[in-house]
Amino acid sequence: MNTSELIDRSLFYSLRKQWEKALDFAKQALAKDPKSFLAHKRLSLCLWYTDKKEEAIASMHKSLEFYPEFASAHYNLACFYAQQEDKDKMLHHLNQAIALEEYTDYHQMAKDDGDFREYRKDDDFLAIVNANNEKENLLIATLSGEDYEAISNLLLKIEREIPVTIIEWEDYYGDDETTLPYLLASKWDKISQEALLHVFKIVTQNLDAEYFTGLIPLCHAIKNQIPADYNHFIIEAWKNKYSDMDAKHLSSLDRNFLTLIAELPVEIIADVIVWALNSHGKDALEDYEELCAIALQDLPENHEVHDTLINSIDTLMHDNQYQDENISDKKQRLVLSIAPPPLKYPEGIEDFRDQFQFQFKQDHPYHIINGAAGLARHYDFIHLVKPRLAEIANLANLNILSLELRLEAISEVLAKIGSKEEIALLSPCLQDKSYQLLKTVGQLFHEHEIVAEEASEAVDYLIASTQIEDIDAYELHDIIVALRWFKDERITDILLNFLDYERELVAREALKGLGTQKAEKAIPKIINQFKSGYPQCVSAAAQALNDIGGIAHLELEKRSNFDIVLARAQKSPRWATRALSYFRVDGMDIDLVALLKTNKENEAYAHITQAIAKRGTQTIFPDLLAIGLDTFTSRDIGGRNFVLMFNTIIRNTSDNINEEVINQCKEVLVNTDTEDITAFINILERDRDYARLKYPNEEEQTIIDAFTKQYAETLENSDLINVLFTAKYYS
User: What residue stretch is flagged as signal peptide (predicted)?
Assistant: First the structure.
């Protein structure tokens, strides 16, 4: 690989936070070209995220030594120095970045960047980021203009001088003339081939671009530029991308990629499928289902991979169950399973509900199940599906159908609208060898208290599967998830054996399983997970105690256990905070508010606020209000979570309105700038309607109305009160 390719590979792994791999490729790039400013920048970022801070700073300065006007390097140095609390150097490099960069809005980037969190109230920092910004719309203006040389040059600067994140891909949706997809679709011939290929490379490597809607017009533009090489180009690009992915985790961009591959000759499609099944195994079947359907329908029987394709698909779907069957019969069975005949709707059928009804009337299992699933989602059409639920259960029991189709029949139809008797018809599924199918049916039978003779066979199979030598952790996870839903005296001991398993995801599910099994004898070991378990196991342990109930609930009322979990939540907020809402400890709301103030992990806010909502009292309202009036913090927490806390606390209280609390709230507001109050109101209004609130009963609504009125009258700020205590309710 040349220097540019090595830098690209380093960027690829950086975007996936695989820093050691990224570091290795950055070093290789520098070995080839010690004067590459891009390689020095890439190396610097890898060093920073592998905790080699001083080396990282030195390498970023080296990048500037070879390209003094490299604005992106100045911005990264500003971030580094902000983290090291070196204010003067931070301000210097931030100023340089803003002064040097023509297109990138570093003003706004710095405002939003978490690296500058500690400076968001610093006057010198604010003076820079709030300065008059004449560049704000220059990027969009250039892309929507008629200077195609400038457009091509701008596209080439992405990730060279312009950080890729500055292109807000979601801003370019639609077919409007100001959008990048429109530009690529309608004026591709005016953009340089080099620029098109560069954008393709950035889009297909960068995780921020997974919702970019312009991939198809971009590739069609490239096809028009390089028609002879296009097929090879698109296949090699996809193989490079898919090789580093986990199967069954396709983004919308990946699905567009597969749509492009579906346009290629069927012989190429078949080769890609065989390659994917060999490289990713059974999991790839779900990703390539539509391509498999095309190949099974259209690939000539005399093609060299015809038999290989059919045998590969059949073996992955059914192991060696049909190994003695001839190719013709295998193909016929697979076509029935995953390659339904194309559906042509009669003229006049355009509404999706009419289309579901038309599907439901077809003979092929694929169309019947898809149509039933679509109709079952709409209350007015459930009556059409109900009479055929026994038929759909029988289809779900057919192991010649694809696992995905059977699961759709179970999860999207029978689980939603089936009766206990109709769900019980799924008992033959318990003889299946799919862990996912056993989990789905086992959970349904558990929830509906259905006893089936086949359950013992499923338990024996799952227990035996846990003993497989060198079993993959993800496979073991699926086994544990399935096993938890069955009743058998052996299950508790097996789950206990996996509490100290080396992979977190297995231990976590074992804990949840002990809760489902109501395993009182496991309580001491579950409690021990608070102190010594993985971060995810802390929350799973609390959930298990809650599910066991009875004497296990006493452990959730102990201050000593809560303090241990609180300490874990401070260290691992993303995972351990999920445990907090299960506790019922006097005064814990004060500790939770303190945690909310110091938390910096975005994914933890929902869990902390949920715990505050469940366990809080009105005495913490002044503190919550003060947190909300800190615009930067409240923006991270979200308006919906403030509404959830205030509404739920009010509903849960039986006390009268506390005048002292109201006066404290008033004092908080008096000491706050009007701009901050307005900003908080805007945050609340933006997403308050998504607060997870159940519809209030009459008594709860009376309490809410009383609080709202009293607070509005006393605080003389009805706008704030109205949005803080109001949300759409979902039953």
Answer: none
Contacts of 398 (CB under 8 A, 6+ apart): 365, 406
Terminal CA-to-CA distance of the chain, rounded, Å?
A: 58
Verdict on whether the full-model pTM lies above 0.70: no
Give 323-387 as a 3 state SS string. Answer: CCCCHHHHHHHHHHHHCCCCCCCCCCCCCHHHHHHHHHCCCCHHHHHHHHHHHHCCHHHHHHHHH
Compute the distance between CA of residue 655 and CA of residue 658 in angstroms, rounded to an integer.
8
Structure tokens at 626: 């003060």
E strand segments, 428-468: none
Taking residues 156-160, report their average pLDDT.
Answer: 71
Residue 629: both structure tokens together: 């009036």
Between CA 404 and CA 668 the distance in angstroms is 55
Contact 721, 708 (CB under 8 A): yes
Answer whether 632's CB lies under 8 Å from 120's CB: yes
Helix (H, G, I), strand (E, B) or coil at 669: helix
Q: Three-state DSSP class for 162?
A: strand
Residue 363 buriedness (CB in 10 A; 0-12 / 13-18 / 19+): exposed
Mapped to the 3 state alphabet, what secondary structure does 113-170 carry? CHHHHHHCCCHHHHHHHCCCCCCCCHHHHHHCCCCHHHHHHHHHHECCCECHHHCCHH
Which pair of tokens denotes residue 630? 């800190």
Q: How far apart are CA 119 and CA 85, in angstroms?
A: 9
Which residue type, as a one-letter code, is found at position 396?
A: A
Look up residue 496 and give its two tokens. 């206990």
Confidence class for position 178, pLDDT limits 50, 70, 90: low
Query: For residue 321, what are its two tokens?
Result: 């169950």
